[in-house]
Amino acid sequence: MRIVLLGMPGVGKGTQARLLSLRKGLVQIATGDLLRQEVENGTELGKTAKQYMDQGELVPDQVIIQMMEKYLDEAERKGGYLLDGFPRTVEQAKALDEHLERNGKKLDYVLALVTPEEEVVTRLAGRLTCLNCGATYHQKNNPPKTFGTCDVCSSRLQTRADDDPEAVRNRLRVYLEKSAPLVDYYRAKSILREIDASGTIEEVYDRIQSVLEA
Ligand code: AP5
User: Fold this and answer.
1) What's the pTM value of the predicted model, to 2 decimals?
2) Which residue of 29, 83, 146, 158 is 20 to 30 Å from 65, comparing CA positions?
3) pLDDT tens digits along 66-106
4) Dihedral pair phi/psi, residue 206, rounded to 5°
5) Does 113 sit in the ligand 1 pocket, CB within 6 Å?
6) Banded pLDDT at 148 (limits 50, 70, 90)
């Protein structure tokens, strides 16, 4: 399967993508995690990306499109993927379409997770992230078993630099301006499914599951 997850920052894309990957064996490609890894490794790409990410701005399309070619090819060889954080602009969506066309493939679903803005602000304010393996937690909604420590790899949990209130406000503004138009882009292709992302993590997972099973 080839699936795209869309939605505001903090709506729960990464959380659901990780569950789908664990339970359904789908290959998750999370552009935010890939970029944070590049930043951590101090690569040229990481240095470029950091300037944008810390402000809550998007990394330029050409940088992302070039990075994604390699990961999409690899995932294609494994039989499909779940894209979390890509595409993020109509230009990126067109690049993905071209990649799919070249390989004679199509997207199966674009799942747009939807919840009110106040809810995503609360989710981001309590988020804890493992910068080693990418797992995410929430101080109240989804706490780790041991305070401050990742359940998966035992690394120390941190608050992401772009989760501070000012960067969050900017990310929401950038989402509305640059990423929200993707909903109409994919609706016009009749592959968009809107998922109510309010409620618990398991409730949202069940809604996604129903769509995929149908
Ligand atoms: P990225 O890491 O992709 O950030 P994002 O899209 O802003 O999404 P988030 O990771 O913040 O949120 P999420 O929806 O995954 O929510 P999560 O599951 O963690 O990108 C970061 C930056 O990289 C961008 O700003 C940009 O600079 C750059 N970038 C990345 N991709 C790019 C691209 N394609 N083009 C250009 N630039 C790009 O959940 C959030 C919290 O809520 C967690 O604490 C979680 O435990 C909790 N939670 C989840 N679900 C629920 C629930 N149902 N109930 C209660 N709590 C919940």
Assistant:
1) 0.94
2) 158
3) 999 989 999 988 888 999 999 999 999 999 999 999 999 99
4) -60, -35
5) no
6) very high
